[in-house]
Design goal:
Helix content is 62%, strand content 6%. By secondary structure, it is mostly helical.
Length: 71
């Protein structure tokens, strides 16, 4: 079951990375407020994820935020 758990985590990581790339329309590796416009559920889900306060979300920030939400 430990192996299954790890594979689920990897699958979730793939889904997060894929969705991040879809949202990152200018392909700069960051999500801006403009890129998240029209995505109220995602905006709510990622509220507080911008740990360095630069106004952008990196994939690492998103993953860290979502992993805390699951714990």
């Amino acid at each position: 079951s430990l192996l299954f758990g790890a594979s689920v985590c990897l699958a979730q990581a793939d889904v997060i990375a894929t969705r991040f790339k879809q949202l990152d329309t200018n392909k700069d590796g960051k999500l801006s407020a403009d890129e998240l416009k029209g995505q109220p559920q995602i905006q709510t889900l990622l509220k507080g994820a911008d740990k360095d306060g630069d106004g952008f979300l990196t994939l690492e920030e998103v993953r860290a935020h979502l992993s805390k939400a699951v714990d």
